[in-house]
Specification:
This protein is mostly helical. It has three domains: 64 residues, no CATH class; 37 residues; 55 residues, Membrane-bound Lytic Murein Transglycosylase D, Chain A (Roll), CATH 3.10.350. Strands 1-2 form a two-stranded antiparallel ribbon. The longest helix is centred in the middle third of the chain and has 34 residues.
């Protein structure tokens, strides 16, 4: 006879505990030095102090003191270091890097060139329009003869122009309107444009 055995559960693996790094300890003299510097200098000079300490080698007291000022100021404590740090960040001017200054100069030069180009184009357009001033439209009055219509009258008055545009000008000059605007009668007086010679 066959014997039945119960399945054996697999062993459960427990993950290893997570190691949290120890907080960085700042020597007491370096912290005191950083707090003294923050309270003794006006808010405008803290950027200079930061830039001079940023060149220090990692692990030196000056570098550690700067880190302590930043960490104390960002933690939200009400000590003098945090108030000086927040005042210096709020009151300091924006400083551009060398690349940023180059970009600003490039933008200024491009805008100046665009402005000069726009002024020269507008000046050229204005000069060309002044040189080719539109001719004055001179008009005269004629009497319609028997057998003339608006088309023949337009061809007679302005032989070089499109008769449709001449007919439109005759209609507008005489105040004609409606469906019979292009109908004329013998003996009627019309104001017509005179062709430029």
């Amino acid at each position: 006879m066959a014997t039945m055995t119960a399945p054996v559960p697999a062993p459960v693996r427990v993950p290893a505990p997570v190691r949290v790094p120890a907080p960085v300890r700042v020597p007491a003299p370096a912290l005191a030095l950083a707090q003294a510097r923050a309270t003794a200098r006006p808010t405008g000079t803290t950027m200079a102090a930061r830039s001079s300490t940023s060149r220090a080698k990692p692990g030196t007291p000056a570098r550690l003191a700067t880190r302590a000022v930043h960490s104390v100021g960002s933690a939200g404590s009400t000590g003098p270091a945090s108030s000086a740090g927040s005042a210096s960040s709020a009151g300091s001017a924006v400083r551009l890097t060398r690349r940023g200054r180059r970009v600003v100069r490039l933008v200024i030069v491009v805008l100046a060139l665009l402005l000069a180009f726009a002024v020269s184009v507008l000046g050229h357009v204005a000069a060309s329009q002044a040189g080719s001033a539109p001719a004055l439209h001179v008009t005269t009055t004629i009497v319609v003869q028997p057998g003339e219509n608006m088309w023949s009258l337009a061809r007679q008055v302005a032989p070089d122009d499109d008769p449709r545009s001449t007919i439109e000008r005759i209609v507008s000059l005489n105040g004609l309107s409606g469906a019979t605007a292009s109908t004329i009668y013998p003996g009627e007086q019309l104001v017509v444009p005179v062709a430029a010679s």
